[in-house]
Amino acid sequence: MNFTKQYTEFLRSFLKITAPVRIVVDSSDGTTGPIIGDLLEKERLIEYHLINGSPNGDFPGHGPDFLAKGAMDTLRREVLTRGADLGIVFDGDGDRVMFLDGAGEAINPYDVVRCLKDFFDPPYILDVRALADFTMPGVKVVEEKVGYYHIRRTMRKMNLSFGAEFSGHYYFRDFFFCDSGILAAVFMLNFVAGLKESSRSLGEEVKKLSSLRWAPPLDLQIGDGEGALRRVEEFYGKDSSIRISKLDGISVVAEDFAFNVRPSNTEDLMRLTMVAKHGKALDEKLAELKKIIRVV
After folding, report:
1. I need a labelling partner for 40 at 20 to 30 A (CA). Which of 27, 71, 249, 259 fits?
2. CB 189 within 8 A of CB 15
3. Neighbours of 38 (CB within 10 A)
4. Which sign does the torsion angle of CA 140, 248, 251, 178 carry?
5. Are 277 and 257 in contact (CB under 8 A)?
6. Nearest CA to 113 among 100, 124, 121?
7. Going edge to edge, which strands form the sheet with 46-51?
8. Are 82 and 51 in contact (CB under 8 A)?
């Protein structure tokens, strides 16, 4: 039995391309290269260029983690050179994916959720770093702790159709409630093709969907993690208009900004995610928070 063909046919059943799309795909010398080739080679409306497409455990292209410094440089250059509508990069084992628009700009995974959510039935499941009450008002979202175990457990229990994490994991009920970078890419291809039908670009659409300003994810060295969380709750708890959640670390949602700060599951540090309505609020609140938690 040809399991690769069987898997490819399963993925193809979700592919609904309605207009010509030009893409560049970086498989990071990992497992997705052969699958992508089989999936796309007969799709007449998809023009694709595959880089780092042959599995190689030495990862000569840029390593298996697309978030490493410089890892997306080649993809970005190819997207710009070839005038692509979309850039796609998978990690080594293909469970995570990142997307670039036609200008070579990386798209925030939660903006990807905004792009894809209408393909699925709400509510959607997102990790606490989405700060969904602030970033997606009016969208039905179930928030959960960070991590595959927590997301998948709740997704199965509630029979949810779609979910995501900030790390680039996208979860699907139709994929056994598991994460799949390739299936996320299939739905993003469908979305971009839909935009092309009305002469819209991915970059323009993302800007329309959200004008929020995100701080780069920060890893903070804190001498006393429990004390830091306690000080955050005490400081922001004084304002009755601010909502506080302690589902995973502590999340604070205010009118102009929101953040989550939580202990790392694997390292002796705190991880901070912050978003604001404009750059001034982002800079001010980031500086304020660092003082409160006493960054070493």
Report:
1. 71
2. yes
3. 17
4. negative
5. yes
6. 124
7. 46-51, 21-26, 86-90, 97-100
8. no
| Neighbour tally for 17: CB within 10 Å | 18
End-to-end CA distance of the chain: 57
Neighbours of 89 (CB within 10 A): 29
Per-residue pLDDT, averaged over 3-15, amounts to 94
Architecture of domain 213-293: 2-Layer Sandwich (3.30)
The radius of gyration of the chain's CA atoms, rounded to the nearest angstrom, is 20
pTM of the model: 0.95
Q: How many residues can be counted in the chain?
A: 296
- pLDDT tens readout for residues 62-93: 999 999 999 999 999 999 999 999 999 999 99
**Helix/strand/coil (H/E/C) assignment for every residue in 72-100:** CHHHHHHHHHHCCCEEEEECCCCCEEEEE
- Residue 296, pLDDT > 70, answer no
User: Containing H/E element for 251?
Assistant: strand 250-253
For CATH 3.30.310.50, list the domain ranges present in the chain: 213-293
Into which CATH architecture does domain 3-209 fall? 3-Layer(aba) Sandwich (3.40)
DSSP SS3 for 296? coil
CA distance 124 to 133: 13
Residue whose pair of structure tokens reads 């798209």 in the numeric block: 107
- In tens, the pLDDT along 246-270 reads 999 999 999 999 999 998 877 778 8
Q: How far is CA 28 from CA 100, 227, 288, in A?
A: 15, 41, 39
Give the HSE-up count for residue 277: Cα atoms under 13 Å, Cβ half-sphere. Answer: 6
Query: Can you say how many angstroms the Cα of residue 227 is from the centroid of all Cα atoms in its chain?
Result: 30
Tokens found for residue 260: 């989550």
Q: Where in the chain is the domain with CATH 3.40.120.10?
A: 3-209
CA dihedral 232, 224, 130, 98 (to 10 degrees): 150
CA gap 115, 138 in Å, rounded: 15
Tell which residue, 98, 24, 27, has the closest CA to residue 67: 98
